[in-house]
Each structure stands twice: as C-alpha cells, then as structure tokens.
Amino acid sequence: MKGKQNKKRLKPILKKSMLTALGLGIALPIGGTLPQANAGAIGPEITISRPVLNDGINWLSYSSEQNDPSFVPDVPIEVTKNNIVRINLSTHFRSDEYSTLTASSSDISVAEAYVETSQDENMTTPASTLVVIPRQSGKINIELKANYMISGEPETVTDNIELYISKKGDVNADGKVNSLDAADLFDYLRNMVTRRGFSYVEMNRMDVDRNAEPALGDMNALLQGYKGKTLGGKNNDYVLTFQQVDDAPYVLNGELKEYMQNVFSTDYYLMDIDYDDYLNTPSYQWYRATDPSGEDRVLLEGEIAEQYTVKDEDEGYYLVLEVTTHSTSDANTQPRRVYIVGKEKIQLPD
Known about the structure:
Elements: H1 2-14, H2 18-21, E1 37-38, E2 47-48, E3 53-55, E4 78-79, E5 85-88, E6 98-105, E7 111-118, E8 127-134, E9 138-148, E10 155-167, E11 176-177, H3 179-193, H4 200-206, H5 216-227, E12 237-244, E13 250-260, E14 263-271, E15 283-289, E16 298-299, E17 308-309, E18 318-325, E19 336-341
Parallel strand pairs: 2-12, 3-12
Antiparallel strand pairs: 1-11, 4-5, 5-8, 6-9, 7-8, 9-10, 10-12, 13-14, 14-17, 15-16, 15-18, 18-19
C-alpha cells in the first residue's frame, strides 16, 4: 500500500516539465531540445570522478571511498593523483599458488590494463598490482591470467572483469550528454519507488553529484551543470565501474585412476576463480581414443557416471573423461569442459 501511495504522489511530476517539477526553473521537453555535447574525451588524459564502484567482484572493496571501519576490509580500489586505478592482486592471486600473472584490455583505446610487480625490503613476497589507465568512454574486458602451480603441471586460469567508463552526466551511456540523460535519470528516480533493481554500473552513472547516493539532487546537478557549463563538452570527468564477469568453475589437476580392478574414476581439484558459485557436482561423459592426446576420442553412449567399468572392447584404447562444470550464479555462462586422458592404454588381464 505504501508503494502505491508514493507512486500516486509522483504522478503529477510526469505531466509537467521535469525541471519545473523539481524547482529548477528551466523548461525541458522530454523529447530533448537541450544542446547536446559529445561525451568523448577532450584531452590526452581524463579525470576520474570518484567514487569508483565495484559491482559483484567479491574480493574487492565495493567503492574506492569505502572507509567504514565496521566493514571487513577488502582489497581497496586506489585512485591515484594522476588518474590511474591501482588494485592489489596479491590476495586474489597468491604468489604461493600462482605465477606469471598478466592482465590485458580488450580495447586499449578505451583503457589500458597491465600487471605491475614490485618488491621492497619489507616484503617477503612480490606484490602484483593491476594498473588501469582510462582513456575515453566505453566498455572493456580485463582478462587476468595466471598459472596455477599447486601440484602437477602448471595450468592456466583466467578471471574476467569488465570496466565501464562514461562521461560525468552521460547517464544513459549513449556517448552524449543531453536531455535524454535527464529523462533517463527521472525514470530511474521514479523506479526507485517501485524497487526495480539497478546495477552498480547504472547507479554510478546516475550519481551525477558524486555523493554516492543517487537521489533528486542528481537531477539538480545534471541541469545546473548545463547552466554553469560544467558538464558536457567542456568537462573531462569520467565515471568508472568495475563489474564481475561470471566464469564457470575450473577443473584442475585432473587424473584418471584405477580404484579397483577394471574400474576407473578421477581425481581433480574444483576451483571457482570468481568466488561467486557454490561448487556443485560436474557432469561427466566417457570416451575412448587411440591417440594419447585424446583428440580422436569416440563417444561411449550412456557412460555418464563418474566411474567407468572397463569392457572388452576398450582394450588397446585410452580412456578419456569429459568433465563439464556449470555456473550456479548465472545460467547464461558458458560451461567449462575439460578432457582427462588416461596415462596408458587399457590392457585386460589374461
């Protein structure tokens, strides 16, 4: 009932100019006649408008301005004076578990990303830091890649995160700053009442006054930015939001073993690099192959259990087990398939 009352109270605002309703004294037709300005960068370097937010990266602080001592401290998002973002990766990729840590950007014209390794006299292990240099509006994928070193041969794992960059005031991230941004901001404020879910990426763009609390004051900041010519083409402030990309869990150190005569199963280590999935049981499929790489594998119909009992027709072949993991947090995430090949061909006893 309370939600319905609030919705009725906001209805008259929809019938008026948004600015008049908010007491700003400027007419703004929803169709959009406000002069628009390109939202691209205007100089060789952009200015990062704090806070920089994190949407769903579980090991990282949710904000570059997080300073509440009641929170368990996560890895901070550091914004330097020269407008570079630095994130310590040493707890996410521990040096006693991982090596050869790298980072790459899907589009270096939008933002550059790399790993910096340093060690001073007070450190017992090197510190690996993700360095991100924003260039202009856009979205990139940052691929963090490392070799997992615990037992067996090193295996490469990848953690993907996205970075969204938009010009301050470009609420809808369409590359322009105009009246459509005011319309979208108003729609956001209206939907706050109906409790529609918004991501941190959206909310960070809506936070025009940069006080980390999207509210009516952001509408005032957006329109006054035009009046004072502090937004649009003459402004070089940009809003940054990092977001987790869901990756299916990894199957590492896989090995086929004969647990009893002619019955094979597997050992492996199941790891979720994102820390956002609960680790459920993978699915299985058995094959046989003539090549020790398992590349010429042939499907064994109906053999989908974790254990496999050898048959006469398997003699002289390598067994291959396909292990498939699925994300439990995002049904749209691609499954991850790993093929574990037996070390020797099957030889049945005489």
